[in-house]
User: Which sequence fits this backbone?
C-alpha cells in the first residue's frame, strides 16, 4: 500500500499542494490516473513522491517512509546526451541484454544509433524502457503517451497491463483522457493543490462531458 497523508508543498509563500491525501493498493486498483488543469500540482506531486521536493506530511510504502529506491519516475521531458546510442543509454539501467531486447521488441528502437537522431516519440520510448528496466514496485509515468505513435500507445497499454498483473503500483498523468480510460482503475482529480475527488471505472463515462486543459 502506498499512502500519501496530508502532503503540503510550497514555493515561497504559496502552497502548491495543500493537505493532499490519497492511497493506492498494490493488490487491487493499483493503477491511478491523475487529472487536473495546468498548475493543479500534478508534476509537483510526482516530484514530491520521488523525493525531489521538501514537504510536510507523510508518504508511506508498506507502512514505512517511502524510500527513493522503491520508485521509478518517467518525467514528461527527458534529457539525453546527444552522442550516446540507445544501447549505451540503456546500459546505465541494466546489464541484462535479454531484458533490453524483450522491451525493445515492443518498441522497435534502433538502439545502435545515436539518440540525437531519434524523434520525440522514440526518445519517449527509450526513456520508458529505462524506467521499466529498473523494475521498481512503484512507477510514476508523467505524460507517457506524449509523442507516441499508434503502435507505441498500444504497446504501452500492454506494458501497463503486465505491470498491473505483477502488482506494481502505477501512477499516470495524461492530457489524453482516453488513455486513462484504457489503463486506470481509478482517476484522481487535482484541484487547487489537493485531491478533489476520485472516481472508479464505472464512472469514467462521466468524463466525456468535461473539457480539461491538462
Assistant:
Amino acid at each position: 500500500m502506498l499512502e500519501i497523508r496530508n502532503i503540503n508543498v510550497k514555493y515561497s509563500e504559496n502552497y502548491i499542494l495543500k493537505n493532499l491525501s490519497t492511497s493506492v493498493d498494490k493488490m487491487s486498483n493499483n493503477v491511478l490516473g491523475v487529472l487536473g488543469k495546468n498548475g493543479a500540482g500534478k508534476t509537483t506531486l510526482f516530484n514530491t513522491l520521488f523525493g525531489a521536493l521538501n514537504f510536510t506530511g507523510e508518504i508511506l510504502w508498506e507502512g514505512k517512509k517511502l524510500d527513493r529506491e522503491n520508485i521509478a519516475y518517467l518525467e514528461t521531458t527527458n534529457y539525453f546526451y546527444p552522442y550516446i546510442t540507445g544501447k549505451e543509454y540503456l546500459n546505465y539501467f541494466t546489464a541484462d541484454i535479454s531484458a533490453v531486447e524483450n522491451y525493445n521488441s515492443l518498441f522497435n528502437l534502433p538502439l545502435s544509433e545515436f539518440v540525437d537522431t531519434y524523434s520525440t516519440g522514440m526518445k519517449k520510448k527509450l526513456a520508458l524502457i529505462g524506467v521499466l528496466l529498473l523494475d521498481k514496485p512503484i512507477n510514476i509515468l508523467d505524460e507517457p503517451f506524449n509523442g507516441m505513435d499508434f503502435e507505441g500507445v498500444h504497446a504501452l497499454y500492454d506494458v501497463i497491463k503486465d505491470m498491473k498483473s505483477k502488482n506494481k503500483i502505477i501512477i499516470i498523468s495524461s492530457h489524453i483522457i482516453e488513455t486513462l480510460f484504457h489503463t486506470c482503475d481509478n482517476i484522481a482529480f487535482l484541484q487547487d493543490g489537493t485531491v478533489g475527488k476520485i472516481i472508479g471505472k464505472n464512472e469514467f463515462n462521466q468524463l466525456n462531458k468535461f473539457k480539461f486543459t491538462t
The beta strands are 2-11, 14-24, 31-35, 56-61, 64-65, 71-74, 138-142, 169-173, 186-191, 194-200. The longest strand covers residues 14-24.
